[in-house]
């Protein structure tokens, strides 16, 4: 009988459904709260050195735990590299750029005046977002120089050194929705997220609906997943009003509680099958 260790922050709907799907396939699942884990920084095996499914909500905890467990010989899904890359929007963008994957233009800056000058040069509107973060938090549309000065002032005068990095991205005039493609080894389905607000995130009130992923979108999502080393990821795509499609972000801890009824994609079962296929 195969065995999987699942690491979590909170046992949300996703973790419960995934655990049930694994057990329904005859797999033994041990669950571990990341807050309780204290691991030696050595090659000493943890448990039996088998497969670990990393479902921690904390980016910091997940990337460190994955890295430590890989050194200890565990097969971690997703890998430490994938988690570290997807959890940092700047590193995600660089990984996509290295593979010539279409995406909005973006730049990174470390000083207020220099960032405002570059926004002036590239033109408005544009979008500023934190390098680390999720669920559309602290993402802002910037419509002109005065707004840019205010946003950059807050970015560089508040918080610690980690927050004093400005990621600025091209604003894409979407047709009222964005797209998410689920890649579980390969593209397995997707959803369209509709909203009257320009931030189309279900955590911010966007309405999910199923969309049949056309082959070009599936290939683009699979390329993006490979670029970051992701095996089970959600790839967010932006579509312009002219039909051009580009990659925006990639999520390493796939969430589906808000959308599974709308999309009818059996993600827990698909993920369980992939995990068991990767389990020694």
TrEMBL record:
Q: Which is a GO BP term held by this UniProt record? A: SOS response
Q: Does the keyword ATP-binding apply?
A: yes
What's a GO cellular component annotated to this UniProt protein?
Answer: cytoplasm
The UniProt GO MF terms for this protein read:
ATP binding; metal ion binding; ribosomal S6-glutamic acid ligase activity
> Mind telling me which InterPro entries this protein's record contains?
ATP-grasp, ATP-grasp_RimK-type, ATP_grasp_subdomain_1, LysX/ArgX_preATP_grasp, PreATP-grasp_dom_sf, Rp_bS6_RimK/Lys_biosynth_LsyX
Keyword tags: ATP-binding, Ligase, Metal-binding, Nucleotide-binding
- Residue ranges of the ATP-grasp domain? 93-276
Gene3D superfamilies in the record, alphabetically? 3.40.50.20, ATP-grasp fold, A domain, ATP-grasp fold, B domain
The record, for NCBIfam families, names: rimK_fam
Protein name according to UniProt: Alpha-aminoadipate--lysW ligase lysX
């Amino acid at each position: 009988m195969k065995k999987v260790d699942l690491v979590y922050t909170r046992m949300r709907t996703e973790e419960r459904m995934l655990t049930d799907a694994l057990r329904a396939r005859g797999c033994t699942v041990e669950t571990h709260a990341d807050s309780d884990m204290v691991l030696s920084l050595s090659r000493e095996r943890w448990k039996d050195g088998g497969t670990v499914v990393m479902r921690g909500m904390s980016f910091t905890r997940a990337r460190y735990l994955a890295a430590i467990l890989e050194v200890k010989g565990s097969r971690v899904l997703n890998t430490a590299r994938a988690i570290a890359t997807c959890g940092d929007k700047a590193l995600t963008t660089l990984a996509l750029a290295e593979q010539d994957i279409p995406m909005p233009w973006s730049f990174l800056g470390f000083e207020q005046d220099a960032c405002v000058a570059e926004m002036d040069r590239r033109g408005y509107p544009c979008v500023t977002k934190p390098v680390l973060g999720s669920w559309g938090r602290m993402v802002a549309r910037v419509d002109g120089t005065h707004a840019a000065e205010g946003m950059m002032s807050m970015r560089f005068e508040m918080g610690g050194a980690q927050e004093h990095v400005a990621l600025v991205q091209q604003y894409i005039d979407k047709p009222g929705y964005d797209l998410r493609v689920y890649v579980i080894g390969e593209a397995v389905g997707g959803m369209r997220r509709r909203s009257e607000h320009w931030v189309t995130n279900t955590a911010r009130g966007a309405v999910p609906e199923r969309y049949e992923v056309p082959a070009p979108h599936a290939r683009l999502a699979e390329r993006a997943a490979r670029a970051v080393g992701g095996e089970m990821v959600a790839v967010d795509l932006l579509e312009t009003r002219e039909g051009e499609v580009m990659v925006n972000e990639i999520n390493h801890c796939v969430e589906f509680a808000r959308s599974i009824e709308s999309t009818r994609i059996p993600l827990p079962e698909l993920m369980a099958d992939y995990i068991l296929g990767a389990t020694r």
